[in-house]
């Protein structure tokens, strides 16, 4: 066996690549989104997912205010926007939807901006949150799920994206 630095070992875990959105889809300045990788299912019944977000993020403020958020799994079609706009700019400074050329649609069951260019879209109601070191772990109940486009999702591994293909 070979010893690993703890942070090096944590970088060896593959993660889903997603954009989390929250706020009013029609109101510039009251809508936002961010790229996340620390996302996981936490319960079958009820269907719950959890996402870790730094409490300084604008999207976190919107989730707390609107008590809802949407998760958009990233595919090749969204990859550049996930890194270049949603993953590197603050929603306090720019409207990420306008900057990316995306006109969000309204959620079917929640109030949140929906990015229709995603292969998997999960609409979630805020359930709870827990402080976990330098992040907050937000738990949401999945109340609706659908496909926006027919593409394979991407994962995030060691600083790069990789396409998930069916076996």
Automatic annotation (TrEMBL):
Upper taxonomic lineage: Archaea, Thermoproteota, Thermoprotei, Desulfurococcales, Desulfurococcaceae
GO molecular function: FMN binding
Phosphoprotein is among the record's keywords: no
Family in the record: Belongs to the flavoredoxin family.
Record key words, sorted: Flavoprotein
Requisite cofactors: FMN
Species the sequence originates in: Ignisphaera aggregans (strain DSM 17230 / JCM 13409 / AQ1.S1)
Protein name per its UniProtKB record: Flavin reductase domain protein FMN-binding
Boundaries of every Flavin reductase like domain copy: 10-163
SMART domains reported in the protein's UniProt record: Flavin_Reduct
Pfam families: Flavin_Reduct
Keyword field contains Flavoprotein: yes
Alphabetized InterPro entries for the sequence: Flavin_Rdtase-like_dom, Flavoredoxin, Split_barrel_FMN-bd
Lineage top rank: taxon: Archaea
């Amino acid at each position: 066996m070979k010893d690993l630095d703890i942070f090096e070992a944590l970088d060896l875990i593959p993660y889903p690549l997603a954009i989390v959105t929250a706020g009013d889809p029609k109101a510039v300045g009251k809508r936002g989104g961010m790229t996340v990788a620390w996302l996981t299912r936490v319960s079958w019944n009820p269907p719950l997912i959890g996402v870790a977000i730094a409490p300084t993020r604008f999207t976190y403020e919107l989730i707390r205010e609107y008590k809802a958020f949407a998760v958009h799994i990233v595919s090749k079609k969204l990859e550049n926007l996930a890194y270049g706009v949603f993953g590197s700019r603050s929603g306090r400074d720019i409207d990420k939807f306008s900057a990316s050329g995306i006109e969000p649609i309204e959620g079917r069951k929640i109030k949140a901006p929906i990015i229709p260019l995603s292969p998997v879209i999960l609409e979630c109601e805020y359930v709870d949150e827990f402080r976990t070191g330098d992040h907050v772990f937000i738990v949401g109940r999945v109340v609706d799920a659908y496909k926006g486009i027919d593409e394979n999702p991407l994962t995030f591994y060691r600083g790069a994206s990789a396409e998930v293909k069916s076996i």
